[in-house]
Each structure stands twice: as structure tokens, then as C-alpha cells.
């Protein structure tokens, strides 16, 4: 009986330690990959070209810029202006000032709880990559960087008052160095194009603060959003994402890696498993277009408009919207004279990038 008891005990004991060992293997393996990655020759994109001059207009789409100019032109309604007596007559700058610090505080609390701030001692290799991307994109300083524990592949720039760059742990683990630089460059592109405030506003990021900001701030938000239809918003989202994709390509300077990174935002598989053919993926997009055309040809104009509007609006719910259109646009930009000129006009000396992450 005692012998039988010992057998059961030993089996349970061995099973427990085997389970603990298996749990530790992915962590150890990932640590090993990171150590190899940081020691690789060329790590940190030190051989990437820093363009001699890079204005935001070199990669921001015309549509993106025009729509932002339109958003900035919206004025505070007269009846609200009489009550709040603002120094600004336009909605956007007034909202930035009134909501900035409160939104910053809210995001700081949320972000500090979710992840780890990148410093020289914590994920210092990530900081080096962000600094290099900022140099390439001619940004004077880098935002605060956080690695966020999340089993979803994403990078996001948030907090228009004091920007944070959020990189998910899944993105870090499943991207190779060039793919990660594309993701980082995309978000720094959003920052350089001044997209963060509008992303916050359109996603409802300020709506949760009505108890702090007061009635009239909320009235102004409603007034601003009331001027923008889903179709206008969809047009801007597509244009702004294309702008960011271009910045990502300039940062990583590797079209194949950029293509893999774009698609892998949807697939979320390890980098060594991603094999993307640009030609085949664009064929996939053509299949959708052909079937859409067959349907549209059988419908009256009003129904065609309804379907087109529905397709645009439905894209707004996706984490990576308009992927087919963006993928095609990125191939075109990579082959453009404008992009090629940026890579040949090399700066003699690197830009000085200030860091907020000590």
C-alpha cells in the first residue's frame, strides 16, 4: 500500500515539475532570442539611411493633410462661445487645452498599471530602435515607451498632451527587427502628422471624462463630431493610415519586412512563419473587387452607394482598417521617385534625439 502511495506521489510530483519546466521553456527561449537579437551585427538599424531633410509633407498624403486642415477650421458655436468666453474661436485648440492634462493623467494611470516603461536598463534595445526611427523621421525627441502585456499584436501612440508609445509584448515577441521598426515608425509617423488628438476624439477617448471636463466641453465634442459623417471619417482614417505606413517604410527601409508586418497585424504568428508575396496578396484583393463589381452592376445607383458607404463604415471597426488599399498604396509609394529620393539624400550627421525615458 505504501509502495502504491509512493508511486502516485512520485507521478504527481514529476507531472508538476514537468509542467513548470514546460511553462518556463517559452520564457527562456524568448530571452535567448532577445539576447541573440541585441548582439546581432547591424542591430538597431545603424546602417539605415537618415534623409537629409524630411518634412511631414514628404510622406503625409494630401487627403490626410486637407482633412486635418478642415477639422481645425471648425469653430465654437456662437451660443457656447457666449457662455464659456474662450480665448480661441476654433474647437480643436480649445479642446486640446481643456482636456489635455486630465486626459494625460487618466492615461498615465492606466498605462503604468498595464506595462513596463522602457528605459536604458529595461528593454534598452527597444529604446535604441525607437531612437533610431526618430532620427530617420527627423523627430526631435522620442515619446515615453511602454511594453504592454497583451496577447494581441499592436503598436499604438496615445496621449496627445504628452505622447506614449505602447508596444504589445506579442508584437515584441513575434516581430523581427525590421518589422518592429516598421511598427514603431508607423506610430512615430502618426505623431509627426498630428493624428493623436483626432484618434482620441473619434474613438471616444474624451467622452469618459465628462464628469471632470464639464458640460460645455462635452457639448463642443458633440458639435465637432456632428460635423463629420462616417464617410468623411472613413476617408480620413484611410488617408492617415497610408501616411503612417509610409513613415513606417521610411523608418525600416525594407519593403518586404513592411509587407510582412502589415499582414501579421492580422495573423499574429512568429516572424519566421510569415511568408508574404505582394503579388499574391494583391490578387486576393482583386478577387474581392471583382465580386463587388458583379454585385454592384446588378443594383441601382442608390443601392450601389449604400453598399459602398456600408463597406467604408464597417472598416472603422477594425484595428487595422483598409488593409488591402493600404497594402497596394505602400507598394506604389515604395516604387515612387519621392521615396527613392529620400533614401539617396543622406544626412551627413545624425539628428540629436532627446529621450524622455531615462
Give a structural overview:
- With 358 residues, this protein is mainly α.
- The chain has one domain.
- It is built from 16 helices and six strands.
- The strands form two sheets. Strands 1-3-5-4 form a four-stranded mixed β-sheet.
- α5 (124-136) packs across α7, α7 crosses α11 (230-252) and α12 runs antiparallel to α15 (323-334).
- It starts with a helix and ends with a strand.
Low-pLDDT runs of 5+ residues are: 1-44
Specify the biggest β-sheet.
4 strands, mixed
Shape descriptor reads globular
| Lateral strand order in the biggest sheet | 1-3-5-4
Number of helices: 16
Total number of beta strands: 6
What structural category arises from helix and sheet content?
A: mainly alpha
* Helix proportion: 55-70%
Please state the average pLDDT score: 83
- String of helices and strands: HHHHEHEEEEHHHHHHHHHHHE
Query: Into how many domains do the coordinates divide?
Result: 1
Gyration radius, in Å: 24 Å
Distance between the terminal alpha carbons, to the nearest Å?
63 Å
Beta-strand residue percentage: 5-15%
